[in-house]
Amino acid sequence: MSPSKTLWESTDRTLKEKEAGSPHKEKHAAHGELVRDAIIGFADGLTVPFALTAGLSSLGSAKLVILGGLAELFAGSLSMGLGAYLAAVTEAKHYEVEELRERAEVKEKPLAEEDEVYEIFEQYGIERAQSKGVVEGLKANEDMWVRFMMDFELKLEKPRTKMAWIEGIVMAVTYFFGGLLPMIPYFAFKNVTHALFTSIGITALILVVFGYVKALVTGCRHIDAVWSAVQTLLVGAVAAGASYGIVRGVNSAENVTAMTG
Amino acid sequence: MSPSKTLWESTDRTLKEKEAGSPHKEKHAAHGELVRDAIIGFADGLTVPFALTAGLSSLGSAKLVILGGLAELFAGSLSMGLGAYLAAVTEAKHYEVEELRERAEVKEKPLAEEDEVYEIFEQYGIERAQSKGVVEGLKANEDMWVRFMMDFELKLEKPRTKMAWIEGIVMAVTYFFGGLLPMIPYFAFKNVTHALFTSIGITALILVVFGYVKALVTGCRHIDAVWSAVQTLLVGAVAAGASYGIVRGVNSAENVTAMTG
């Protein structure tokens, strides 16, 4: 499954790029964000084109379904990929801005910053007497102090800008192929209804497997994974049902032949 | 603009829910993740339905555009919202699993965990002699020690599960209304070409404003904000162009009237 693949690849990237920390640590660190991206990205890629084509199938024309589906695939994968790329770039910019600001604070009002370090540790019930050593250590090295503030005060992870393109491409490709799968039956069958049911079958299967693998990858137990698979399937069903209903409803209100002139 | 609004609301949520830290700190902390979500979410909501409807407009029927657009709006906003909700729930689950594991490690091999704390500080050039006080402080309180490891070793932020529903709803609503805007002209004009150009105008305007506000909210300077606005506009243009091109291409290959029978 692409999402979990992405997950592991990115974990490896994190491992390579972060100097410190044992694999198991970094794997954890990499998860949180990527799990989210992978789930939203792939679930969309699979669900939206499926639901859209299901909705359009109520018009009774396989070709219309294919045209609408292709329009969605290109629109979706491009905006998804470019969106992810731009988001990564914006994040990097944001980090840069905050880092400059933090460095200025360390330079211009070190006492206030010193206090902030003490406050960070006080959140964990550590008295100033106990954290004094760390504070002294940070004061001795401005770069390390700034890095510490970025990590522990602002909790901003240094973005891997060189990854922005790759992230964008991965997201676009995942979305495109995820979205292509539910459309295949409409290429294969002349009969839209047959195509629709085959498409539902294919998508349901993938959604279940995806939901299951997804949950396992995030470290859930099998029972939770099954529940997650069911949930993922429900998302697809609800989205497709709503889409089918609205198209059929609007369409029966209007005469379809009048529309397609 | 909904995304920046979402951004601030969520920031306020974070402020309310996190016991420690000054407003400016938490604002920072909240940004990173939310910026990304807001950008991807809203950009998609606006871009995909716009690009899809632009693509379908090449078929020459406003009604087809509206049907395809509505199918996409419902499919997109539902899968987006439910996807975001499930992602939040999965994250919470993931956090829970990791926390249990961390607590077990603290209980069962405290010396190894102690070492990991020292290693964290060594990453910032702080010697063991200097960080000893903090380590002793953590050892005195298991809960705090586990929280410290979650924050500074795994760098996992405690998910706000009660927010999962709200996040999902916000995302779905944002997507829906973002996607509705480019469709309005197709309701208004009988002539698809007029509708298309009006839709392009409306979307371009919103994308530019959105891109600009977005960049300012993330703390960029005006010049960067302008550049960001241009980028956001380009995404929309590329996606719509590709969608229009593919539909027109496939459509001219096939006879449209044959298709819509």
From TrEMBL, chains A, B:
Transmembrane segments: 164-189, 195-213, 225-247
Keywords: Membrane, Transmembrane, Transmembrane helix
Keyword Repeat: no
Molecular function terms, GO-annotated: manganese ion transmembrane transporter activity
Main location: membrane
Biased composition (Basic and acidic residues): 10-30
Gene Ontology CC annotations of this record: endomembrane system
GO biological process, one term: intracellular manganese ion homeostasis
InterPro entries: Ccc1_fam (IPR008217)
Entry-linked Pfam families: VIT1
Membrane topology: Multi-pass membrane protein
Localization annotation: Endomembrane system
Region annotation (Disordered) ranges: 1-30
Protein family (similarity comment): Belongs to the CCC1 family.
PANTHER family: FE(2+)/MN(2+) TRANSPORTER PCL1
Protein name (record): Protein ccc1
Gene name as annotated: CCC1_4
